[in-house]
Amino acid sequence: xxxxxxxxxxxxxxxxxxxxxxxxxxxxxxxxxxxxxxxxxxxxxxxxxxxxxxxxxxxxxxxxxxxxxxxxxxxxxxxxxxxxxxxxxxxxxxxxxxxxxxxxxxxxxxxxxxxxxxxx
Length: 120
Hints:
The chain has helices at about 5-15, 20-25, 45-55, and strands at about 30-35, 65-70, 75-85, 95-105, 110-120. It is α+β, with helices and mostly antiparallel strands. The chain has one domain (about 5-95): Nuclear Transport Factor 2, Chain: A, CATH 3.10.450.50. It is globular and about 40 Å long.
């Protein structure tokens, strides 16, 4: 049986990979903060989070693959490594990154905080 916390991560990845970016954005609480992989400033509003994912989604063949994750004993923190990729063939670009999600599985919009940064 998949835990509710794991289901949140799996849903976020599936939504991003199929280009359902409105569904990705809808996973973020109205007061969530996104410290995004490819931005220097935090996104602190639903509009800012939506704008970030709209820009990210404009990349051809965007995808993300979780390479490693760790669920906290309390089921509220997910942290690990993932790789964003876009483009195809020799033009394919990858960005190995680390992430932390603070989630509340009991909420309709369960992502409370998301930090993501590229690996140095």
